[in-house]
Amino acid sequence: MKKLIVLCVCGLLLLSGCSDKYTAVSNGSEVLMQVNNKKYTKEDLYGMAQVSNSDTFVINEAKKVLNSGVEVTEAMKAEAETEYATAIKDKVEADVLKAAGYETKEAYIENLIYPTLKEKAVVKEYVRANYDSLASTNALKKVRIIEVKTEADGNAVIAKIKAGDSFESLIQTYNQSTTYTGAEVISTTNSGANAANILPTDVATVIASYTTPQLVENVINDSSTSKMFVIQVTAASPGLFVEDGITFLSGLSTVTTAYYEVKFKEAGFKVYDKGIYDAIKAGNYSTYLNQ
């Protein structure tokens, strides 16, 4: 039988220095988890806790409680309906619900869709409140990029742009990439972003030196990829594309992690079962621990 989770999120509770603890299934009314004064007993969580990835289970349940006060807006309800329709498309609805462990559409949405939508909302608020710092840390700029086959092609592109041609008009003739299409993108040095937003090493170094929007007048030969690029910086300050920047940053896994590091510490996150603690410590959520 798998070990049952014992979790407490409460700033007043401290992890004792006694011997390692592993939980057992007894005393169904015993409180196993408390987050912001919401309590769960063994009886509440026993069925849910029978999973192999118990560290992920614990973190996700704690997230649900931390975000439980987030209002479900009409926009969220509409998005949830769309996501649910996608989930059951070309499938038997009852089979989808059964596989997920729920009896009704409402329970499915409440437990599987709303938590994600609530997380998106609170992370976006966090980004908005910390935009300047996050945009700087992630080196956000708006750029256009064309990957060219030869330096001669790159020089030809630069000359044509100077003469008034647009990036888009040169794509079909010169672009060698499916990642960089010449369209304006938000660039970042954050490796967790989508490929189109991550700049090759030497390209990133060059762009970082630009503080005003302008065409980079030399073809960039990137040593990390052995590819050549023509770059135009269209917005050098993240303050010029705040809403786009907030949306972009809100989608980065590293930003979501940074948000939860703050919130789990504020909530005094503690785990009292050694097996679960070890799993969290060794996994992707170790920075959420306060012990």
List keywords for this structure.
291 residues; Chitinase A, domain 3; 3 domains; two-stranded antiparallel sheet; 45% helix; disordered N terminus
* Number of DSSP-assigned strands: 9
Q: Please report the number of helical segments.
A: 12
Instruction: Compute the number of structural domains.
Output: 3
Q: What is the top-level CATH class of the largest domain? A: Alpha Beta
CATH topology of the largest domain: Chitinase A, domain 3
Percent strand: 5-15%
SSE succession:
EEEHHHHHHEHHEHEEEHHEH
Overview of this protein structure:
It is a single chain. With about 290 residues, the protein is of the alpha+beta class. The chain has three domains: about 5-70 and about 260-290, no CATH class; about 75-135, no CATH class; about 140-240, Chitinase A, domain 3 (Roll), CATH 3.10.50. Helix content is about 45%, strand content about 15%. It is built from twelve helices and nine strands. It has helices at about 40-45, 55-65, 75-90, 95-100, 105-130, 130-135, 150-160, 165-175, 200-210, 240-250, 255-265, 275-280; strands at about 5-10, 30-35, 40, 140-150, 185, 215, 220, 225-235, 270. Strands 4, 5, 6, 7 and 8 form a five-stranded antiparallel beta sheet that branches. It has a two-stranded antiparallel ribbon with strand order 1-9. A two-stranded antiparallel sheet has the order 2-3. The radius of gyration is 25 Å and the shape is elongated. It starts with 6 loop residues before the first strand and ends in a 9-residue tail after the last helix.
